[in-house]
Amino acid sequence: MQYSHIHIANIRLINSAKVGYLSTNGINGYPQSRAMINLRNGVMFKHIVPFFKQHDNDMTSYFHANNRSNKIEQLTRDTKSSVYYSDFETAHGLLITGHLTAVTDKAIKHTFWQDKWIDFYPDGVDGSQYALLKLTPNRACGWFEHKDFEYILP
Predict the structure, then answer these.
(1) What global pTM score does this model have?
(2) Most CB atoms within 10 A, among 13, 101, 123, 136?
(3) Could you say which of 3.90.550.10, 2.60.120.260, 2.40.50.140, 2.30.110.10 is the CATH number of the domain covering 5-152?
């Protein structure tokens, strides 16, 4: 499949951004956004880079969270979510919408685990606190090269 230069630039942005701004739907009907560490960042998370080869073109994003957080409660009611990545120096912004789900596959959770996360999840990778979230995208839109763009993702 031939990908547009915008899509390729968007993949580069996802793979280099330090944070993504994840939004879920709160119980009051309003979006709740928070900065999340971007686990696709190849500099910060070198050991995960091979895992993302299968997602080179689909914009799937992963985030870690505590099972007691409001994100988990919110996605049990409504999986519709979005993540925003940006590079302010180049005025490149990317909003990805899709469905956020909790990963239950222990092998995948182990692939992402960082020993330094023990402060957040004292019971470890197999404990009850650590959650890995997956955003399966369906749409991308944003601003690149002084133009807006929008496209549906497979």
Answers:
(1) 0.94
(2) 13
(3) 2.30.110.10
